Amino acid sequence: MTKDDFYYWRLFATGLSFFNFGLGGLILRFFIFPILSLAPGSPQTRHKRARKVIHWAMRLFIGQMRWLGVLTYDAERVKTTLQRPGQLIIANHPSLIDVVFLISFVPNANCIVRSGLFINPFTRGPLANAGYIPNRDATQLIDDCASTLAASDSLIIFPEGTRTPPGCKKPKLQRGAANIALAANIEPTPITIKCDPPTLRKGEKWYQIPYNRPHWTFDAGEPLGIPGEGSTPKAARELTKTFSHYFFPEVPQ
Known about the structure:
Elements: H1 7-36, H2 43-67, E1 72-74, E2 88-91, H3 98-105, E3 109-113, H4 124-130, E4 133-134, H5 138-150, E5 154-157, H6 176-184, E6 189-196, E7 215-220, H7 233-247
Parallel strand pairs: 1-7, 2-5, 2-6, 3-4, 3-5
Antiparallel strand pairs: 6-7
Protein name: Phospholipid/glycerol acyltransferase domain-containing protein
Domain Phospholipid/glycerol acyltransferase: 87-196
Transmembrane segments: 6-32
């Protein structure tokens, strides 16, 4: 294949976009959130205020990448669905910026993030201010997620736990999303994400861009029913299988 579709411009613009992402994280941490902290309100109000700021920052980041010609996307089939509060949103995870897209679509999204990001100078400020949930103790994690859903906040989870490795047709799903759905007694809303041609996959560097401009598509499905037997290991296994069938239906179990 030849390097067309403004390849070298997209390579430069991709680097510029991620540089601006890091710069934006520092601006949020050292300028925006200190100002927001002066406003009155309960911890929950402060978290929602910070999430709204992050939501608009992610919209700006995605809009910048689209304007620069780095990518295109179609989210018309999920925008209405993702506006509803208090949803457990589960999605497959083909690329690095999937969560950025989803946060840009959901006004008050909570997320589970790697605990290491809470010590990263670019991300720890926004994460702490937004009340995002670190993936530390499993029991505490489930309790925190159930609490955020009970407060009518939406929660974004990737059952794979990490990006899908290149060439992997049937990634192994973790049971965390199922355990959270069962503990909160809530039917998850599935979002299918596709990226063509693939880019920003697990193990790929930001500069390993495809020869053609990548296009993301997002589709929302009906809420997935949960077993009626309560939060048990068997129910978590069955629900995880349901997730796997939904996101990877063409792959034999």
